[in-house]
Amino acid sequence: MKIxxxxxxxxxxxxxxxxxxxxxxxxxxxxxxxxxxxxxxGIMPIxxxxxxxxxxxxxxxxRLSFTTDLAAGIAGAQAVFIAVGTPSRRGDGHADLSFVHxxxxxxxxxxxxxxVVVTKSTVPVGTGDEVERIIAETGCTHRVSVVxxxxxxxxxxxxxxxxxxxxxxxxxxxxxxxEVMREVYRPLFLNESPILFVSxxxxxxxxxxxxxxxxxxxxxxxxxADLCEKVGANVQDISRGIxxxxxxxxxxxxxxxxxxxxxxxxxxxxxxxxxxDYDSPVRxxxxxxxxxxxxxxxxxxxxxxxxxxxxxxxxxxxxxLGLTFKPNTDDMRDSPAIAIAQALADAGVDVAGYxxxxxxxxxxxxxxxxxxxxxxxxxxxxxxxVIVTEWDAxxxxxxxxxxxxxxAPVLVDLRNIYKPDDMRAAGFTYVSVGRG
Length: 436
Description:
Shape: elongated
Structural class: alpha/beta
GO molecular function: oxidoreductase activity
Protein name: UDP-glucose 6-dehydrogenase
Number of strands: 14
Largest sheet: 6 strands, parallel
Pathway: Nucleotide-sugar biosynthesis; UDP-alpha-D-glucuronate biosynthesis; UDP-alpha-D-glucuronate from UDP-alpha-D-glucose: step 1/1
Strand content: 5-15%
EC number: 1.1.1.22
Radius of gyration: 23 Å
Helix content: 40-55%
């Protein structure tokens, strides 16, 4: 089957490469000529483990290609995926659907055969209806079924998530759409991956509901962490104790500096705006968004407290280890490190930072941070070392070297990757999250 993937960003590129690896003929389309040129040269626009090799192998096999020509790219395609960005709209927080609508119009104008048009982008309820209307408005005479097929990819583990999904959600309104989508995902169906066929609007809402629920779990355990510090309990024990309940589960119950990334902040906000438009407020999600926003800067205050308070912190140096919102990605969107660094800079603290993959993306977002070539360069002369992102490279720091380089052996572990007793035995003043 020929598949066209319009949009060669994170979702489009990962999805297109995986579909090609299943044996489909895939064309990834993007208006950015420089991006397409780099992809043709094997240069990835994002960091995702295993993606470069997957793209290289399938390009060499002739199953994956790249173009800026939408008409040529969709010619003969039985499934045309829309995988362009839907960022939060400036001013009101709604999802910006201008790219989705523009693609729908161009596809309608240039489609030369019957096809299923699939929204892979994360879109609010009712977007599929609008895509269908736009395509019809172009005067397209071919049979078109508009389908919603939300993605559930975790950055840093996207290829595994695509090939071994918990479920595949397909929102279709007719048998033509369902039939084509069955063929698209037939390789996964043979592996017994569950496929859930629902209405188009249900599929659109499933994506937002899933991300809002996961964001709620993160925010809940972060608030429990604060309570643990007040009462002298251990949040990791709390997480294990409630996570062993099958009704709750252990995932997303790790206390930390708050969630970030390309999905949770944007999608929770978009869900709030959708709920407002339909006069059906989601109060829990409102609280989650507000609590997460305030937590990031609160982690900056936690570091300042570890330095001895506001007056003592001025003029001191802090090393931030990990700048991306999570490990195994170079994504800086809504990373807690941004707010933490700003809070420290506002308090007169000199901030040095290091990240294994996110330095280039972080630099323009964090002008107050001096970027370093290694973790130990950042630590040199620091009065406190702060672990913001739990990269594997930070799980086995050379403690003797850290103590020799730092002005003071203060370690603020915002991801709880070390054991308090071990750190104190090693001679550190150790601060963690939720372990009173």
